[in-house]
Amino acid sequence: MNEKSYTELMKKSAMKKKHLKESFVLDLYIDMLLSEILLKKEKAKLMEKIDEAIDTNNKRAFNHLSKQYQELTRRFGN
């Protein structure tokens, strides 16, 4: 018979819990990293549009885009 001892079962259970925690932390880190990349990309895109509005002397677009940029910065603190 191939029965596992209580100690072996407890070790296996502990390892499984540890693996699940590590996996959760890794998933959380990946999510944070992707969010940061998307935020930087969105800010860069807005900055390009703001620069274009300045170059074309478009005050209306500049004001609108600046407000979007400020809101993005306020929400994410960067």
TrEMBL record:
Domain annotation IDEAL: ranges: 29-69
Pfam families named in the record: IDEAL
Gene3D superfamilies, per database record: Virus Scaffolding Protein, Chain A
InterPro entries documented for this protein: IDEAL_dom, Virus_scaffolding_prot_C
Name this polypeptide is given: IDEAL domain-containing protein
Record organism: Cytobacillus solani
